[in-house]
């Protein structure tokens, strides 16, 4: 363990560094730049003035650290520009402190931030060679790294006034290092003097141990590995507290020039020529630079007989440049008395044997890569993480945040298993995509998001292999880079809701017959007129009919929903979609300019559609989808301002939501979605949807969790109705996928009964029934059907009309909507009884027998006024009665003498 106390010499050294070194450095700068006046007091005075006028306060920012995305207590993914795991002082092996101090700053605990001896020696050397290098204390190196990190944190691509990139961000990052380490001439000396100024100030504010630990936590150890903990784990797969002497000496050597001495680029062996001169051997076996210094110490040990020839060759065979640097560090430890001779020899003969253990970053290594990618897109696009794209990227890759997500491991595992079981990663002849998303209805928390493809951010791989992509199919263009999918009949939800919001009943009869798509009103963008008289058939060619929204929803009848929409305003339907959280995938509002939009020709995201159905399940309260529950700093401090704002808002009345749910429940119980119902006792609502032969959907929800499943073509090419996988049409894999996912969601989240539908919105509506008696059967059927009534042709009835004429209908006048209207044709075998009242019975009998051959005289009543011939008083059946021709019509009459 290195010493930590500051001595009086150290304090004086700091004062000397502030006062005396100013003059010394000033004279040296002057000697290099203006030799002619170097001996004058003016030069020294000028240099001192420059030194004193430099900023003396260096603000130590938080270290750049990886941002970690969590699900519960499990790491979902990490992202970083610098792989770093800061540690406390006692979490580093003492031998590491010894190694770094002996090789970099042996008088660290004796000086006050600037080592006068080392600095003066370096300045004199640099003055002769014109290049500033070496001589920096640990405090100065810490200062240099702090300044580099400040530069790197703020690095962005430089653009000209036209927005063209002048320097890429990588080039700017490289300049941060270059300008801080290799500046020469006056700029180099000024940089060195500034480092001194800051180092002296830091030693007044921080302890030696704090500065030493700060240096080991900030220093680069090659590539993106920063800090001793990350370096130890990356190169040797051990924590910094468990580093051995050889490992510590190797890392202390690497930090001096990371990209030269790093040991993760393939093993570099050493070979020898006939004279015993060592050469580097590159990984491909080629020979590059001579490096005799690499084995100088080994030669000494071999020549004095301390190690055997076999040990010599073993030690030299591997990473020769780094081995030479390691031997230098070991020799400094030995000279300082920090290790024994035996320890030195043992470490010297031990080959450098790295165990490279890369720290994974990015979503590709995540157990839920597409959910992870969606979270990343939120971080990179939501203003909560910064006003600019650069600020948001910094939050993701530098700020060391802990992002705690809403992902539910059990539901996610079920979703991914369903993908693996039922959906192919790719299909020949099309770019096939399947996605699922589950959302908590009462909160909007996204519980799971799975996809059939394999995740990659390599654009070339994604372009050449349809099984790979980074696009999140469940998302939209802003969050997930997806252009969405045609919603098909799942979009009928919004027509159903608007119907109810207009006070219409789900049991009201609507014209849903097969016919050209009817013209529709759109008060926002202009009415839709079907000029071409285009017809749209129903799924599976089922027949259209006059029916109710309850029936149409259960059977997903296109023609029925066209009929409903024709009685509404398309603009209102679009507004319903918007308030329930659904927009086009590109972020634009739904417009419903076309009648076909009613049945889902617009491209939307599965996540948005899941949220809409969750709104119905949640009693009409829409909760914006959220994937981030909370955010903390590296020290555990809550950062609520970094949690993207999401809210829950009532958008439907409870009555409308409950009635819509009652219609959607029929879908899951005997309707088109029955195959997706796990039938586990949890009440469900849902809706199926297809768009031509390109997209298929299954959305279902309990009162607690909504799940949306999509399977279809990503680019609109291909036929999922005629393509099979594992015994199922691709169109049909939506059912078992949704069923399996929802079963697990029900298991962990449950679900209650849905509220009863509203009485008014389920009422039977009484409507006027047209009178069609006397019309032909064809005319009567058309008249009633056009008015929205179901027609039943009954048995012929007695009538004197021709047999194709309607002789009777039931009911007539008015009836509840949905009541079948029975029309009865004439049988042509009846006649109307003529009115023969007042005629003589004989004449009346002759008249009646023309139609009713069985007519007879009936009862006679004596009446003097009846006269001798008699007078008819009536018939049975009465006049006007329609009766079969075989009926025996009886004539009643009076006569003065009935005998």
Brief digest:
Residues 764-827 form the PASTA domain. The protein is α+β, with helices and mostly antiparallel strands.
Task: Give keywords.
899 residues, alpha+beta, five-stranded antiparallel sheet, four-stranded mixed sheet, 28 helices, 37% helix, rod-shaped, PASTA domain-containing protein, Glyco_trans_51
Tell me about this structure:
By secondary structure, the protein is of the alpha+beta class. The chain is built from 28 helices and 34 strands. The strands form 13 sheets. The chain has a 5-stranded antiparallel sheet, with helices on both faces. Strand 23 and strand 24 (728-729) form a beta hairpin. Helix 20 crosses helix 25 and helix 21 (549-555) crosses helix 25 (654-668). It starts with 7 loop residues before the first helix and ends with a strand. It holds the Pfam family Transpeptidase. Keywords: Carboxypeptidase, Glycosyltransferase, Hydrolase, Multifunctional enzyme, Protease, Transferase. Residues 764-827 form the PASTA domain. This is PASTA domain-containing protein. Residues 857-881 are annotated as: Disordered.
